[in-house]
Write a structure and sequence with these properties.
Elements: H1 3-19, H2 32-35, E1 37-39, H3 45-51, E2 56-62, H4 67-82, E3 87-93, H5 98-103, E4 111-116, E5 119-120, E6 126-127, H6 132-144
Parallel strand pairs: 1-3, 2-3
Antiparallel strand pairs: 2-4, 4-5, 4-6
């Protein structure tokens, strides 16, 4: 590769980094998923439980080191946006919020728990990542519960 071509490639890369081209950084509007996803900690848990009095909250217990959690995360976040506010996805990092993990008796990751009116829905737990189709079916089943 000639010095000129190498320079152009490096310059293009630097420009892409500066302008945020290709990573969505230039977009000012938040994604629909961002409005329906919240990190849950002991500090904002009461607020999330208040939201559960108005709509379904899906508590997503996971960890950064958990491969199925990492695989499911972008899918369930996208679904939170696609469902248009029908539920709030509450993401709980079990390493950072051990108190919440204990409160919900979390033993396996990832674990999804449906919550309405500040209480866990009966038979609402989903353990593991079953794939998008089954995840959609599980979400639909939770939305149907009152």
């Amino acid at each position: 590769m000639s010095k000129t071509k190498r320079f152009v490639c490096v310059l293009a890369g630097v420009l892409a980094l500066i302008t945020g081209f290709g990573n969505g950084a230039a977009s000012a509007a938040p994604s629909p998923a961002a409005e329906n996803v919240m990190t849950v900690t002991s500090g904002n848990y009461a607020e999330v439980m208040n939201i559960s009095k108005q709509k379904l909250v899906i508590m997503d217990f996971g960890a950064t080191w958990c491969p199925p959690c990492r695989q499911m995360k972008p899918v369930i976040e996208r679904l939170a946006g696609e469902y248009g506010g029908k539920f709030l996805l509450g993401e709980v990092d079990v390493d950072q919020s051990r108190d919440l993990s204990s409160k919900y008796n979390i033993r396996y990751l990832p674990t999804l728990v449906g919550v309405r009116n500040a209480a866990e829905l009966p038979s609402s737990r989903n353990i593991g990542y079953p794939g998008e189709a089954k995840l959609r079916a599980w979400i639909d089943a939770q939305l149907a519960k009152r």
